[in-house]
Amino acid sequence: MTETEKLFNYRSGDVAKLLGISKSKVLDLVTKDKLKYEEQTEGQQYVFRPKNIEAYLKTLREKGKTEVRIISLLNIKGGVGKSSLVIFLATILRKMGFSVLVVDIDKQCNVTEFILGDKAPTSKQPYIKNIFRQDDLSIEEIIYRGRDGLDIIPANINLARIETVDLGDFTLFDDYVKENLLHKYDYVLIDNPTSLNDMVKAVLISTDYVIPAVIPARWSLDGFDFLEETINTLNRQYKMRRETMILGTICNMLTVKKSRKHMKKNEQALMMLKDSGEVPYDFETAVPNTTSYAQVIENEESILEANIETKYKKILVDLAFEIIERIHDIEKELRKKPA
Ligand SMILES: Nc1ncnc2c1ncn2[C@@H]1O[C@H](COP(=O)(O)OP(=O)(O)OP(=O)(O)O)[C@@H](O)[C@H]1O
Ligand SMILES: [Mg+2]
Fold first, then answer.
1. Which of 74, 75, 83 to probe ligand 1 with, by most ligand atoms within 8 A of CB?
2. Does one domain contain both 179 and 328?
3. What is the CA radius of gyration of the chain?
4. Type and span of the H or E element at 102
5. Which atom of ligand 1 is nearest to the CA of 191?
6. CATH code for the domain of 220
7. For residue 297, which atom of ligand 1 is closest to its CA?
8. 59 & 72 share domain
9. Which residues span the domain enclosing 230?
10. Between vectors from CA 79 to CA 289 and to CA 267, what angle results, nearest 5°?
11. Does one domain contain both 53 and 71?
12. Which of 64, 91, 114 is at the close of a domain?
């Protein structure tokens, strides 16, 4: 087994975290043969693989027992790693056994080009704009299968043409989600442009969890208030399936290895962010600034197959785990509250 495969080798406790259930429930599912395992260790511990998780989740979705979680990587400040994080997290969630759809609403098409390469749509082929024009397209026509088992609703540079247009109806994306995606995917990850145009707002109202990224410099917080205000306003205006909330901020591009002086500066900046209370619920796992990540994007490689140190893959796996666990915690709380 490769070092990378080992990152996806699960014990009962890990499966409990991935599925948001207790460890005893995991063991119960195994006893009832609803959840298959790969092998048993000498110490009688079960070992699971992503395909086991995948098979179990598939049965849940088919019975309509799980609903998609829609996650938007969204910032007002650009260049902080949104597109890279969408690509990395989507790849890892998919590898873990989840069914994942990526949605690109950025005319720059970074994520589309990475996932689809030569298969990226021309302006004549279906892409995200068709959803906003209410074109009668089947789900197969607008969802493309890309690398690493990822599905994507792609973007095209011609989005620039409708980006500035008043949408009128903000619920078009939500209608599409309800009709087509609710029990088809476990996670939808959306890559956004840096503006809050009508299309972004339309997607935002059906987003469950917004994840902004920050880089450890004071100015990367610019626009954060505006983002929160916009979310609050949209929540008041539109009563959707769920309220949109900020799940947590990812601290990206943390410099850890350069000169001591530089490291200190970055760490201080990060501490300042945390202490300021302006960055809500940041994740424990910070993403370091490393050419390894930049190269993977630049070379259009799979993060899992790339020849980079395993520790860099592990950081992203840890981050994915943190995101999943936080979502499960929130959903547990929501279930307790009366509707
Ligand atoms: N952790 C990291 N370490 C090093 N380089 C990174 C890291 N994350 C992202 N980058 C690089 O930083 C640049 C910007 O990243 P990316 O395009 O993902 O940001 P973005 O927020 O989507 O930008 P935009 O606002 O233009 O959409 C890219 O060249 C990317 O390879
Ligand atoms: Mg981007």
1. 83
2. yes
3. 20
4. strand 100-104
5. 22
6. 3.40.50.300
7. 31
8. no
9. 67-336
10. 40
11. no
12. 64
* Atom 16 in ligand 1: residue holding the nearest Cα: 81
Give 188-211 as a DSSP string: EEEE--SS--HHHHHHHHH-SEEE
Per-residue pLDDT in tens (0 to 9) along the chain, 339 residues: 899 999 999 999 999 999 999 999 999 999 999 999 999 998 889 999 999 999 999 999 999 999 999 999 998 888 899 999 999 999 999 999 999 999 999 999 999 999 999 999 999 999 999 998 878 888 889 999 999 999 999 999 999 888 777 777 888 899 889 999 999 999 999 999 988 899 999 999 999 999 999 887 655 666 788 899 999 999 999 988 889 999 998 989 887 655 566 656 666 666 766 676 666 668 889 899 999 999 999 999 999 999 999 999 999 999 999 999 999 999 999 988 776
Reference 93, options 263, 330, 322; nearest CA is 322
> Coil, strand or helix: which one is 299?
coil
Contact 186, 69 (CB under 8 A): yes
Q: What is the count of structural domains for the chain?
A: 2
> Which one of the ligands is nearest to 254 CA?
1
Is 114's C-beta closer than 6 angstroms to any atom of ligand 1? no
In the reported structure, the alpha carbon of residue 175 is separated from the centroid of ligand 1 by a whole-number distance in angstroms of 31
Domain boundary at 31, 64, 97, which? Answer: 64
- Residue 290 Cβ inside 6 Å of ligand 1? The answer reads yes
